[in-house]
Design goal:
With 128 residues, the protein is mainly β. The protein has one helix spanning 106-109; strands at 2-7, 10-13, 18-26, 34-39, 46-51, 58-60, 68-73, 78-83, 92-99, 115-118, 122-127. Strand 5 (46-51) and strand 6 form a beta hairpin.
Length: 128
């Protein structure tokens, strides 16, 4: 069992930055692939970014490439999402997630159904 807790969300103006963190506890986190997803009101939960174990492969959604960076610290069982140049369309609840496997194809790592454990979410609001 893995428990995930997100933090770092908030209100920011367009063009600003936020750093989301996700802390894991319980069963070992260090050998699981992890990812970030987001869900805006009235929309499906969508992929944002993912990173494998040990952290040498990352994938990002086209909408955030060049602006968002995913990272992990296996020793501390944490992961982060650095978000720069934020846009109003980035407004959503952001969720961290952990898989039961360490690495997979791009299609697998982008698929929310492939992740077993989820955090409770943190709200990110970008004002124009």
């Amino acid at each position: 069992q893995v428990q995930l807790v997100e933090s770092g969300g908030g209100l920011v103006q367009a063009g600003g930055s936020l750093r989301l963190s996700c802390a894991a506890s319980g069963r070992t986190f260090s050998t699981n692939a992890v990812g970030w997803f987001r869900q805006a009101p009235g929309k499906e939960r969508e992929f944002v970014a993912a990173i494998n174990w040990p952290g040498d492969i990352t994938y990002s959604a086209d909408s955030v490439k060049g602006r968002f960076t995913i990272s992990r610290d296996n020793a501390r069982s944490t992961m982060a999402l650095q978000m720069n140049s934020l846009k109003p369309e980035d407004t959503a609840v952001y969720y961290c997630a952990a898989a039961l496997w360490s690495s997979g194809s791009m299609a697998t790592m982008r698929n929310r159904n492939e992740y077993r454990y989820w955090g409770q979410g943190t709200q990110v609001t970008v004002s124009s």
